[in-house]
Design goal:
- It comes from Microbacterium flavum.
- This is TrkH family potassium uptake protein.
- It is a multi-pass membrane protein.
- It is found in: Cell membrane.
- The structure is a single chain.
- This protein has helices spanning about 5-30, 35-50, 65-75, 85-90, 95-105, 110-120, 125-135, 160-185, 190-205, 225-240, 240-250, 260-285, 295-315, 325-335, 350-365, 380-405, 410-420, 435-465, and strands at about 370, 375.
- By secondary structure, it is an all-alpha fold.
- The chain has one domain (about 20-465).
- The protein has a two-stranded antiparallel sheet.
- The longest helix has 29 residues, at about 5-30.
- It is globular, with a radius of gyration of 23 Å.
- The N and C termini lie far apart (about 80 Å).
């Protein structure tokens, strides 16, 4: 047998294996979008764990311990911002490039990323692939029911939505980088270094990650209000979600043409932003370790900055560990809510909170249905909202109990960092950097579940909903 024939056979087998692999991935993406999304994120995390473990990724040239490499990979892909190492000093330029690439890939979202990969594999968006992408906007679009078609992105618009995701990410980060660059120069950053740090800060703000490329974090910029305002703007744009950006791009300020999702997201986000700032201002104005030594203007501005960052931004101009216990509780509540659906933010999402609040209000008023802005919110949406909250609370409770048992650290610090991880915020009381390896793995799993779990849970609930052509007898248990 000649070498040529052996090479031909090997080539055919390799081509056959590649074809079977692509077909298998495509079938999985079609049959189970949720599992495919989890597979995509898990694969990315394993890939980046290996890359972060390379000696070339660390500034010292020494291999990073597995626990730290894994945690950094999860925090990067899940756009969390928590870290067990000094992000500015531990990683080499190659390591920082990995972080930059990882957060932008992770920011695309679980199901949106899965949809794009499905598009690449199949060369087109089929009906089920469109349902996957539409599910990232509203998981309930994956089945029939009383969902008003005008209140969400239609299947025919999914291609436009995916284009909007990619284009808005590039354009917004580019604009943020241009605005940030002069501030870096004014604050003494070398012009060449600023060319790297400007897009890095832009990516970290829009993706709501919160990593900083320089030693000392935001401390050198604590009085540069223009710089901090640009960061807040980036966090806000990233947290409202791509469907809202898509709606604003199509309808601008024609409020009547906005979807119900866009209205609820923006209104709830703005309300929480001002309420959070007011509460932090009230609780911390006399704390000498945080806002107590600042004048009225500085205190007010930093209260708003802290309110914005606890929603998922992750940047901080103060030592979070020095906040009063009451402020840590308020921060935990804001982090648990998070940002908008299909956004770079985490948490249970502001639309979930809005729907539950509307349901409570309707029940108090004795109304037979939940309504907002002339639209009725169907019961299946309310069930998904309840499921997401129950899922999130369960994850946070189990993780907090486990880590508290492992570390014996104060429960308020453990709870804050756990919620920060679950909601992919990135703020820390200082606890995360001191965790032993077993607790590091628990918190990494919490971040993964927080980023992937709630979305895939909602998609799974929606996909498994089916019509029932009969009804059982009614019996009312005692509630309350």
């Amino acid at each position: 047998m000649t070498d040529d024939s052996v090479g031909v056979r090997f080539g055919r087998r390799l081509a056959s294996f590649a074809t079977a692999t692509v077909r298998g991935v495509r079938d999985l993406a079609t049959a189970s979008p949720s599992r495919f999304a989890v597979l995509v994120f898990s694969t990315l995390i394993l890939l980046f764990t290996g890359l972060f473990s390379l000696p070339a990724a660390s500034a010292s040239g020494i291999q990073t311990p597995f626990a730290d490499a894994l945690f950094t990979a999860v925090s990067t892909i899940c756009v969390t911002g928590l870290s067990t190492v000094d992000m500015a000093g531990h990683w080499s330029p190659f390591g920082h490039v990995l972080v930059y690439i990882g957060v932008n890939v992770g920011a695309l979202g679980v199901l949106t990323l899965a949809s794009i990969l499905g598009l690449v594999i199949s060369k087109r968006l089929g009906l089920r692939a469109k349902l996957i992408a539409a599910g990232d906007t509203n998981p309930l679009r994956a089945h029939g029911g009383p969902v008003n078609e005008g209140q969400t992105v239609r299947l025919g618009e999914v291609g436009q939505l995916l284009a909007t995701v990619a284009l808005s990410t590039l354009v917004i980060e580019a604009v943020l980088a241009v605005l940030i660059y002069p501030s870096l120069l004014i604050n003494g950053v070398d012009p060449l270094t600023a060319l790297w740090e400007a897009p890095f800060y832009a990516a970290m703000s829009f993706t709501n990650t919160g990593f900083t490329p320089n030693a000392g974090g935001l401390e050198p910029f604590a009085t540069d209000y223009f710089f901090l305002t640009v960061l807040m703007a980036g966090v806000f744009l990233g947290s409202i979600g791509f469907p809202v950006i898509f709606t604003l791009w199509r309808h601008h300020f024609h409020l009547r043409r906005w979807s119900l999702h866009a209205k609820l997201t923006i209104i709830t986000t703005v309300v929480l932003f001002f309420v959070g700032a007011g509460v932090f201002l009230l609780l911390e104005y006399a704390n000498p370790k945080t806002f107590g030594g600042l004048d009225a203007w500085d205190t007010t501005f930093h209260a708003f900055f802290l309110s914005a960052m606890t929603r998922s931004g992750g940047f901080s101009t103060i030592d979070i560990g020095e906040l009063n216990g009451s402020s840590l509780v308020v921060g935990s509540m804001l982090m648990f809510v998070g940002g908008g659906s299909a956004s770079t933010a985490g948490g249970i999402k502001v639309t979930t909170l809005a729907i539950l609040a509307l349901a409570v209000w309707s029940e108090a008023k004795g109304r037979p249905s939940v309504e907002a802005f002339g639209r009725r919110i169907p019961s299946d949406v309310q069930r998904v909202a309840l499921s997401v909250v129950a899922w999130g609370a369960t994850i946070v409770a189990l993780s907090t109990i486990t880590i508290a048992q492992i570390t014996n650290d104060p429960i308020e610090n453990v709870l804050f960092d756990v919620i920060s991880g679950f909601a992919t915020v990135g703020l820390s009381t200082g606890l995360t950097a001191t965790l032993p390896d077993p607790a590091v793995y628990v918190l990494a799993l919490t971040m993964f579940m927080g980023r992937v779990g709630t979305v895939t849970l909602a998609a799974a609930v929606a996909a498994t909903s089916r019509s029932q052509h009969y009804s059982l007898p009614v019996e009312r248990p005692i509630v309350g």
